[in-house]
């Protein structure tokens, strides 16, 4: 786990302060020793994936893998299982990003080590929101145990009520992460289309967010894909 690229990510996250980076990576190693993320498999989290609340979806225009989240499809509200599902997905998507070779002649020898998270808030409400503790731990895991992995977070079409949630969670977002968050208002069609088009290929975005991928969730197809991927 702790290779040169990993060490550089922790150093960048702490602005090249060696003592702070060391403290950060030790905390992550302690967390990984308890969480054992590398041991999680699809069958461990399949129940959480039934409704399609979180899934991989191709790459963006910079070659970064895309993780789609649909909080309105929350199906368990189970804090432990939600966190396990998040960690499984991150390990899965980043394992590929860290080790997949690009075609010869490409500018980079390795696929981009950062990912893009696309969150569709269109049908989100307080009724289907996960507990605040889950939201805070999700943020903590991304910032503290997967540093420098987030390239961009796109919050698509958050409703007015989202402002309440945002006012509570935003103080826990570090400035660097905050600068990577983009909001897209579906009602402002031209601006929304321009923003989404600048980041994503239509083949990586669901049709209800301006892409061409059917937004209807097919659990069986995705499960087959992920089990095959686990086998690698």
From TrEMBL:
Alphabetized GO MF terms: phosphatidylinositol transfer activity
SUPFAM superfamilies listed in its UniProt record: CRAL/TRIO domain, CRAL/TRIO N-terminal domain
CDD domains reported in the protein's UniProt record: SEC14 (cd00170)
Domain CRAL-TRIO: 58-217
Top-rank lineage group of the source organism: Eukaryota
A family per Pfam: CRAL_TRIO
Identification of the protein by name: CRAL-TRIO domain-containing protein
The organism of origin for this protein: Ostreococcus lucimarinus (strain CCE9901)
């Amino acid at each position: 786990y702790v290779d040169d690229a990993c060490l550089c990510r922790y150093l960048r996250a702490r602005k090249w302060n060696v003592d702070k980076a060391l403290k950060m990576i030790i905390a992550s190693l302690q967390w990984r020793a308890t969480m054992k993320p590398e041991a999680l498999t699809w069958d461990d989290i399949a129940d959480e994936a039934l409704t399609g609340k979180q899934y991989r979806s191709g790459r963006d225009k910079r070659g970064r893998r895309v993780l789609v989240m649909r909080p309105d499809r929350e199906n368990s509200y189970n804090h432990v299982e939600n966190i396990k599902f998040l960690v499984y997905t991150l390990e899965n998507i980043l394992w590929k990003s860290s080790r997949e070779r690009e075609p010869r002649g490409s500018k980079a020898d390795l696929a981009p080590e950062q990912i893009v998270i696309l969150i569709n808030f269109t049908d989100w409400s307080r009724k289907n929101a996960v507990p605040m503790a889950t939201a805070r731990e999700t943020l903590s895991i991304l910032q503290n145990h997967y540093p420098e992995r987030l390239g961009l977070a796109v919050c698509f079409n958050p409703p007015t009520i989202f402002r309440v949630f945002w006012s509570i969670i935003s103080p826990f977002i570090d400035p660097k992460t905050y600068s990577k968050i983009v909001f897209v208002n579906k009602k402002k069609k031209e601006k929304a289309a321009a923003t989404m088009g600048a980041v994503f290929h239509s083949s990586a975005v669901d049709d209800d967010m301006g892409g061409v991928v059917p937004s209807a969730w097919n659990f069986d197809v995705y499960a087959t894909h992920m089990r095959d991927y686990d086998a690698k």
